[in-house]
Write the structure tokens for this entry.
Amino acid sequence: MSTTAAIKAKQRPGDRVFSGSAVFAGSMILVTLAAVAIFLIVQSIPAFFADSEDASILPANFWAYVGPLVFGTVWAATLALIMAIPVSIGIALFISHYAPRRLASVLGYIVDLLAAVPSVVFGLWGIGVLAPAVQPLYSWLVDNLGWFPLFGGPVSGTGRTILTAGIVLAVMVLPIMTAICREVFLQTPVLHEEAALALGATRWEMIRTAVLPFGRSGIISASVLGLGRALGETMAVAMVLSASGAVTFQLLTSVNPSTIAANIALSFPEAYGMNVNVLIATGLILFVVTFAVNAFARWIVSRRKEFSGAN
Amino acid sequence: MSKRIEVKDLNVYYSKFLAVEGVSLEIEPRSVTAFIGPSGCGKSTFLRTLNRMHEVIPGARVEGEVLIDGNNLYDADVDPVLVRRQVGMVFQRPNPFPTMSIKENVLAGVKLNNSRISKSDADELLEKSLRGANLWNEVKDRLDRPGSGLSGGQQQRLCIARAIAVSPEVILMDEPCSALDPISTLAIEDLIEEMKQQYTIVIVTHNMQQASRVSDKTAFFNIAGTGKPGNLIEYDDTTTIFSNPSVQATEDYVSGRFG
């Protein structure tokens, strides 16, 4: 090759413009993420070493303050997902494999419409409709199933408990999870569905042997996206939840943990000095928690890559 | 194990479109019957009516009767799920379940039909089915590896093992070798020859040498033109179809003059 000149590919302007803009768009993701991370870290550092003398909202030190908030955030999001995952898989399967075509498209459109409702509206609905509606049920649960640790009393008089917040969050994450599950289920290769049917599978058995295993990684992605939204959701939780900052698994009492995002929204207007840094530091913790959840989900998906159907 | 199939005046429709018209034929137990004909002549569609797999396509329906040992598959109280347990199917492209291991693939149908099976029975059935599909020696050391990691021909034999594991009466094969190389094709053809001892086999093929090699009887389907229904033109012993057919169109097709 040393004797002949290397052949140079002809540079076409269209290629250059397109590759340049694609590289620019791709790097903007990293720049934005880095900018947010740097802001959070720089502003947070003083808060990590503050105590109640430096910042009036701290009970003792920063970790004692953020601990219950992290617990509340993860607990509310977990409750939301426990309710949302089966429902969204059910809706998605109904749309993709059970409903007549016309009904399926209408239903898909309605679910998408749910995603367009602003979160403050969900908050209003949670306070105005859901909480009063579920309060009698909560009383009944405490009276009759109070021996079950999660349902311990005394019951909240307003119904604005962590479980209500979880229900509102579940409704909010439902559209995105349903949309992803539906798309993945629709992509199940016809070959695999027919393979199951030809073995004498009923419709449900076909779904169990062909559709659900194929859609497994999609279901996990959908859950992670839903979890991300539930972890970060601010307005609806701030409005619905009557929080007291306790760490408790009880679902139905008026003693409820708050969430990081809702706490920032509620405390920020009156914050000053070091308190602002403390709140930003809780934001950094939320960032880390969300990041960890995403990484965990990716690890789950990659664990059985050979069996994923991608090969 | 194997059963006679009788088809009487069968019409197949996709919604309003008549895809296959007026097919009547009888298939003997323990024989191999090949369906040949140009693309789009309805032979795959007709094959699928033999285990009601055409019903997977919305709007597909049939008129007429398909009798397996005298029982009409299309009686109102017949469950298509039970039909498919008796009449197994192997598809054009190998389709092992990608999320399952080789072992799980073979046992998939049994797990559906009879979810409780003891481990020793399962292992015995696994070996028997894989031996029946001439695959045991190649995969016995990697039964827990994914089925999608095998070669195309091995995957197709895995699909055959999966089909025979539920002990069907009849096995339908829809161009089972069209995605395979000649060596793998030969392996499948040898297998068909052996399976004939136990099963009634119906195979759709575009490869006329294959039809003449493996089948006892051959049915030639043709289509008058685009948009017209497919018809059964001639059905006879394979040697007759390939040496001395009674219809000119059959002779033209098998001698390669058209199609």
About this structure: Residues 267 and 279 of chain A are 8 Å apart (CA to CA).
